[in-house]
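Notes, Module 5: Reading structure tokens.

Key idea: the token line is not a picture. It is a compressed description, and you learn to read it the same way you learned to read a sequence, by spotting repeated patterns. We will look at two proteins. The first is printed below with its tokens.
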Amino acid sequence: MSSIIKAGGNDAQLLSEIAKPTFIESHGHSAKPEDINIYVTEKCSRDFFKEELSDPKNIYHFIYHGNKVAGYSKIIFDTPYANAQENHFTKLERIYLLREFYGLKLGQELMQYNIDLSKRNYQTGIWLFVWVENPRAINFYNRNGFAIIGSYDFKISENHSNPNYQMLLKF
């Protein structure tokens, strides 16, 4: 049985604990180990998430399988993408699942939850960035109706960026 729970101000440590392994599992081979280490040290730390959770625009959710956290997501409402004519778009900034929970449809459940939440908050679509060498994620987004609309270089460290697609789902 699964459940989705909104992260609160006291969840910085749990976010850090799930963010590091999920990022390494999906992107750990995308750059030199030292560059990946720089990224997870800066963007997956307890202090980083403490600051993130203090900003009400950042909306984090955990998905649990039984009583174990399986993954998490982050969305931001009213974040237009480049060249957007409308302002009411959700940015899906993070959606990660621990590899041990792949195949249980938990990623789909969390994605649908974010889509439904965005619709309830009068958003007109969702956009995101995805690493071009992550076919599993690209296929997942395609199955959910997202289309590639552009590209972006995602900065891992001062020395390394990964090419990403920008994808969009309009409601």
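Here is the second protein, with the sequence above and the tokens below, as before.
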Amino acid sequence: MSTREPLLQPVKISDLRPTQITVGMREVEERRGRWKKIPEKEKSAFWERHLIPVILGPKGRHYVIDHHHLARALLEEGVMDVLVTVVADLSRLEPDSFWFVLDNHGWSHPYDSEGRRRDRDKVPKSIADLADDPYRSLAGALRRAGGFAKDTTPFSEFLWADFFRSRIKRKEIEKDFARALKKALKQARSKEANYLPGWCGPVSGD
């Protein structure tokens, strides 16, 4: 079930189905910037390192279980197709059973921009319709700044995003992102965050 076999035929980004409701649009913009810097002759090598992992679902649709930000960034950049790697074929399942299996494997994250769990019918049917969650952008920037280590825990950045929802106001993030990030870095070192994936512990003197 967990073996990933590359599907060499390209899949249209517009045909990909998300398994989450939100992305951090700052994260999307950061990936767009990185994509623009890649020389054309090196883009084929980029694809080999960044296959989009998917689950085959009902009606043979491709459900993305990682790299939602990359897929959205490429869509914004006018890229039509991506290469995918199939993690599991669940196309024989009825929709209710399919989403139950996704949930139990940690392959879906149906939470909205307020951190509230929603029914699966609230998960958008296209990458283009993913909503913005500023806290997810804050968590991504925090990881790149060394606030926590990269971890294999599914949706680990969203767990960090939820940690900050009650600690940093949304308007703080939207008004002064750099200041909010500085505040998040301090909070990430606290023992209150020690249950989160990739926690690096308090620094000396805290």
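Summary for the second protein:
- The domain at 134-192 is CATH 1.10.8.10 (Helicase, Ruva Protein; domain 3).
- Residues 25-36 form the longest helix (12 residues).
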